[in-house]
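Cross-check.
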Amino acid sequence: MSYALTTAGVPAAQQFEVWESAVSQTFVPLTATPATGSGFRGRLRGQDLGSVGVYEATADPHTVRRTERTISRADPEVYKLSLQLRGTAKLAQDGRKATLDPGDFAIYDTTRPYTMAFDEFASTLVLMFPRDMLCLPAGHVAGLTATRFSGGQGVSGIVSTTLVQLARNLDDPQVHGSLRLARNVVDLLGTALADRADYRDVPAESSRAALLVKIRSFVEANLDDPGLSPGDIAAAHHISTRYLHKLFSEAGTTVSAYIRHRRLERCGQDLADPAKQRLSIGVIGARWGLPDASYLSRAFRTEYGMSPSEYRRRGARHRG
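Predicted model, tokenized:
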């Protein structure tokens, strides 16, 4: 389901009231305060990818608060992630404060009070998803709320780049309803959180889940290597190949199938990207570790029910 709202055309005296109502209904019940008493510019657009809500909010300076009172009105028990696209935001929760500049992101929990303040005209990408989608113990996530994750380095940089690209393609018909994309985005976020958490004292089941998230991140960072193998992955994480296969089997897949699936998804994203229309299909395949054009064509058809060239043409028709 897609959603769009703008305060343009609304009488100035009612603009902020409309905005406060929109963010409370779209996300969770909130109270909001404008920085000035004059008219308020606000635009909210987004869609639901399965159980993951993805929204871009652009607005004049204001502050939103999640209070005990608003929590009592409705508590869906979800996490929210805010990635700053423009301007600066200040997030406070659980005694911590994070200042987010463009490219930075932070996670927060709607079951507890928080404040998000925008001191200037700003644009933010917001993800909202059930807490159980993260393969991490809730207690460890609670220790990372209102913590700044930099968009310019490490795993968090990969997350940031992915989210910025998602924001740019939010209106693309090929993104609409992409449950795989939503799952992958949340998995990447889990990887960034896992890198910050201490797992020495967590139960074995949670520790395995965190390890799998890290392994998936490693795979993501090495998809361009056609020689990437289970042995390489196991060695990089100081585990046996047998244990690696067990982790993926418990997740309902195999190591090879997961690598192939992610490579094909990356190829699909490039094929659908207007900025990459001049790249040949062979070049795109090689970029993601699939240099054999005939294999790429067969695998892509098995995965998507059409050839790479057909997929590219369909994307061009949708954009037109």
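The chain has two domains: 2-201, 222-319. The chain has twelve helices and eleven strands. Passed to J.P. for a second look.
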